[in-house]
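Hi all, posting the design record for the shared folder.

TITLE: backbone redesign
STEP: 1 of 1
STRUCTURE INPUT:
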């Protein structure tokens, strides 16, 4: 093995180590961790919305509203003959 190959292997070994000993490496780990936590937080609320209990909101009452803002009355039953 030549000296250039040994130097190349040492450089590859050093480059493959994570940079956790300096400030920029630690900051990078913190930023990636923060984005991971934010993604997990968003997914938590997504699953709560999909599988959680149903709540009645104004959007659910949209079909019951009339022009004057009052609730729509039920249609009268057909008269029996």
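Okay, here is what came back for every position:
SEQUENCE:
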């Amino acid at each position: 093995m030549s000296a250039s190959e040994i130097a190349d292997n040492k450089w590859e070994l050093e480059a493959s180590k994570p940079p956790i000993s300096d400030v920029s490496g630690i900051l990078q780990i913190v930023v990636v961790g923060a984005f991971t936590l934010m993604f997990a937080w968003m997914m938590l609320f997504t699953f709560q919305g999909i599988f959680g209990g149903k709540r009645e909101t104004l959007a659910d009452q949209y079909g019951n509203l009339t022009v004057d803002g009052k609730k729509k009355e039920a249609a009268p039953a057909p008269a029996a003959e």
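COMMENT: The chain has two helices and no strands.
Let me know if anyone wants the other runs.
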